[in-house]
Amino acid sequence: MCDRYQISDRAGAAIANTVLQDYGIITPEEDNQIIDRNKLRRSRFSVRKELANEAHETINDISAIYFDGRKDQTRVLVEREMDICIGILQMKNIILSYLNRRGISMLPI
What does pTM read for this prediction? Predict the structure, then answer.
């Protein structure tokens, strides 16, 4: 949640504790489920590490890359440094297919 919405560990812990209070998990008598910012930080680091390992396994799992000769028209949002306006262009993307152990997947380039 914190990474997706770019909020601090302290704010994330406050939100999580509020939700736990609303559901009755944290009460004045039972406060052993309170989440502090360090617990949240350790959890975020652990999840990031797992996702990075999963991404590396996916990349290492690719056994072949094929070009199927197809070019698709794709709308792309372009922002120019000198102009304030933002335009939408039609670009042709080359589609690559890659083969892994799970089957064939598409990779736009």
Answer: 0.53
